[in-house]
Amino acid sequence: MADSSAIDERIEMLKAFDDTKAGVKGLNDAGLFKLPEIFVRPPEEVAAELKHEKAQVQVEVPVIDLSSVDDAGRRKQIVEQVRSAAETWGFFQVVNHGIPLSVLDGVIDGVRSFIHQDVDEKKKYYSRDVTRTVLYNSSYDLFESKTASWRDTLSISVNSGSHLLHPMDLPAVCRYSTLEYSKHVEKLGKIVLGILSEALGLQTDFLENMECLKGHRLHCHYYPACPEPELAIGLTKHSDTGFLTILLQNQLVSGLQVLYDGRWIDIQPVEGGLVINIGDLLQLASNGKFRSSEHRAIANRTGPRISVGCFFSGPVTNSNKIYGPIDQLITQENPAVYKEIVLSEYLKKFLSTGLDNYCALDYYKL
Ligand code: OGA
Ligand code: NI
């Protein structure tokens, strides 16, 4: 147990870093050779990982081709592939998903431009107030987690269920590109939710009617090059809290890993592809049929790596919305394994816990 003066010292260091409002990019620009202490993971965590590293396995998250998804025969195959991936990995990549490459490149460029601006310009958006529609910060859980993460994030709440984002709230350098991407990714979200509904044996619009497409939020992550990547983490191990996540990663540096069969498996960027994963709420709604897998982003010696995650978390501003295992999926042989949750309470619990302490669905098991 750390003594109280060590804790105070750490809080001072975190505050000093937070007050710069320049994020990890600011540290990196200063030309560091050593990782600052607040980013150093506990030695036992690093040691446990070195053991893992030796066991190389040649498995990959499935890549699913979405072309001709409206053709009945093709759709059946796609539904089957998605079902299998959602039940085993909880992750898959999609290609030929209909979002033009120029839109994907555009949003990555927009995020880069935002982070590369003068600190004075981006400072205006620096905040830890999650009710803001647009905010930028470094480690949303900086003061709750054990280790600060080696990344900066611009978060944009596009559609929280009750109010829509005002375009003028967005930074000018990424206003058009983020809105354009957001429109496309919402359409893709609708297609994927339709496929997932069918994969559960439900009507195509079932999950959409549950308002799963609401709560559309973009988390634009910027992972700078890191002087001592083995000691740091880009984004700590977690599962996503919402229903569905669609993630775009730039092509240059990989960093995303999924925990599969007890091992960390790299999810290499596929040209023009997008990573899709099941979130905790969909694991709960599907009564455990679909998996919300733990994943993380490692730090790299080269960079930057940029990713844009689009999270569909339900109507987050409708405080009384209740979700539980879908009735149609519950039978005598297959009884409910999760409790019902009130969306606002569920999200509050997540936000008040550091990502590295959060045990997701364990709290809601019956
Ligand atoms: C996330 C996430 C992975 C990445 O934002 O929840 O898992 O590669 N991101 O940035
Ligand atoms: Ni995630």
Task: Please write out the topology.
Layout: H1 4-20, H2 23-29, H3 43-54, E1 63-65, H4 72-88, E2 91-95, H5 101-116, H6 119-122, E3 134-137, E4 152-159, H7 175-199, H8 206-209, E5 216-223, E6 235-238, E7 244-249, E8 256-260, E9 263-266, E10 274-278, H9 280-285, E11 295-297, E12 305-312, E13 322-323, E14 341-342, H10 343-351
Helix pairs in contact: 4-7, 5-7
Bound molecules: N-oxalylglycine and nickel (II) ion.
Give an overview of the whole structure:
Helices cover 32% and strands 18% of the residues. By secondary structure, the protein is of the alpha+beta class. α4 packs across α7 (175-199) and α5 packs across α7 (175-199). β8 (256-260) and β9 (263-266) form a beta hairpin. It starts with a helix and ends in a 15-residue tail after the last helix. It has one domain (2-364): Sandwich (Jelly Rolls). The longest helix is centred in the middle third of the chain and has 25 residues, at 175-199. An eight-stranded mixed sheet has the order 1-2-10-7-12-5-4-3. Strands 6-11-8-9 form a four-stranded antiparallel sheet, with no helix packed on it. A two-stranded antiparallel ribbon has the order 13-14. The chain binds N-oxalylglycine and nickel (II) ion. N-oxalylglycine (OGA) binds at residues 219, 221, 235, 240, 247, 249, 255-256, 295, 297, 307, 309.
